[in-house]
Structures are given as C-alpha cells and as structure tokens.
Design brief:
It is built from 9 helices and 9 strands. It is α/β, with parallel strands linked by helices.
Length: about 270
C-alpha cells in the first residue's frame, strides 16, 4: 500500500536537468522539498519550484547542511558527474568520527594515494551523512550502462555507489537506472529527454524506433551480438523519471534497482 503522507525530501542536485523536475513533481505531490546551492538560491528561477526551500551549502561538504538533512526523511541524489567515484563522499561524513566511518576514512586515504581519481566525492558523503541523520529512504539516480566512448570507470563507479549504499541497513535504498542524460549527442546510452532540451527529442524518437525494430523484427537477433545491444532500452522523459522517484518515496515496499522499463511502468501508475 502506497504511503501518501507528506515527506520531507532533500534533493541533491535540485537545480539540475533531472533534479528540478523531481522537485516539481514532489511539490505537486504535497511533499516538502529542500535543495542545496552554494548561493542559497536556484541557478535559475522555475515557477513550478517556487516552494522549494533552498539552503546555502556545498554538496561536497555535508557539515554545511547537516541541520537541514536532519529534518528530512528522504534523500534524492540526482547529481551525476562523469569520472567521479560517485557515492563516496556524502556517505562518508560522520560528526562523531569513529567506528565504521574512521575505517572507511582510512580505506579512502589508501585509495587516494593509489589512484589519481578522486575517491572522496559527494555521493559517498551524502550516503554517510544520511545514515548519521536518520534518513529513512535514499534514492540514487544511476545509469543503465556506460555511454559510448566514455571511460568504463563511469559505470563501475555507479555500480560501486549502488553496492555501497545498499549495505546501509539504516535506510531503504532505491536505484534508478535510466539512460544517461548528458548534453552531448554522442553520449545517448540511457537517454533521459525533455521538451526543454529540444535536441533530445529526435534522439529519443530514434532510440524508440530502434527499440521497436529490435524487439519486433529479426534485427533484434543481430543487435544482441553487437555493441548496439546497449541501446536496446527505452528512453524516458524527465517527468516519467520524476514520477517514478516520487512514487518510490511514497511506496515503502519499493526498493532496489529500477530499470528503464520499470521507470516507465511505475510512472504510468503514479497519480498525484
């Protein structure tokens, strides 16, 4: 049974392409929404998001917004940065600085010395901070697969994030794996599209046509043995993704990995 109580949601990345739509849908659903920016204001005004509470803080420094995090029951992590070890910062923050968190800090320092890629990024910090603050649900916007021509570490860090987050029994975790949303035409695997980004519409149409042909014609057999198999997933709109995210927040029985088709299925049943 879906829980229709009003939730207090912190959206990390609430001013972004996907995050702003999640904020809008959550507000329409009667929830209280908080987001973070360094200025304490959105980058640009959005009439649909005028009731978002903006907090001045740094997503990479959870101590700057811990008070607001403590007032929330849900965290939605909608920021996606290429080539960052995504989950590893927000979840690693601990005001007490002891026990498990110290152990993770030692591991983190070892990894920093061994690898030039920054191990200490905001997604992990968000996760640890959420656990400390008593958050009940952690929603993470991941990706279904690696975009063409992008270093494989992009998707491995996403999977690493999912694995790390799922180990926290303190909160329910939900991982959405849409097609990646990026402002470059070549990187279309996991496409999330919107009318606000006109160039994504023909890409989505082409991907939908490709999906139909690969599923309904012999083309599908050929595609499965080529790198194009990663394109055989349905694109979703920002609204469909946002609907699914808010539905997951309201439904305590929904957790784990949500595929692109799962996003569409959940969105089609969601009612404000």
């Amino acid at each position: 049974m879906i829980n229709k109580v009003s939730h207090k949601i912190l959206v990390v990345g609430g001013g972004g392409f996907i995050g702003s739509e999640i904020c809008r849908v959550a507000l329409r659903g009667g929830h209280h929404v908080t987001s973070i920016s360094r200025s304490g204001k959105p980058k640009q005004e959005n009439p649909g998001n005028k009731d978002v509470k903006w907090v001045k803080g740094d997503a990479f420094k959870p101590e700057t917004y811990m008070a607001d995090l403590g007032n929330c029951d849900t965290v939605v992590h909608s920021m996606g940065i290429l080539m960052e070890n995504d989950y590893k910062k927000v979840i690693n923050f601990s005001p007490q600085g002891n026990g498990y968190m110290n152990e993770q800090h030692d591991i983190r320092r070892e990894n920093e010395n061994a690898d030039s890629v920054n191990y200490n990024t905001y997604e992990k910090m968000n996760r640890d901070s959420a656990a400390e603050a008593g958050v009940k649900t952690f929603v993470y916007i991941s990706a279904i697969s690696n975009p063409p021509f992008i270093d494989k570490r992009y998707i491995t860090t996403k999977r690493e994030a999912e694995d790390g987050i799922s180990k926290y029994s303190q909160f329910r975790s939900v991982f959405f794996r849409p097609v990646l949303s990026v402002p470059f035409i070549i990187k279309i695997t996991g496409l999330v599209y919107s009318d606000s980004r006109i160039f994504t519409i023909p890409l989505a149409f082409g991907l939908k046509t490709f999906n139909f042909l690969s599923q309904k014609t012999p083309l599908g057999c050929l595609v499965k043995s080529t790198p194009l198999k990663d394109l055989d997933v349905p694109p979703v709109t920002t609204t469909e993704l946002a609907n699914s995210v808010v539905s997951a927040i309201e439904n305590p029985e929904l957790e784990g990995i949500i595929s692109p088709q799962g996003i569409l299925d959940i969105s089609s049943k969601y009612q404000l």
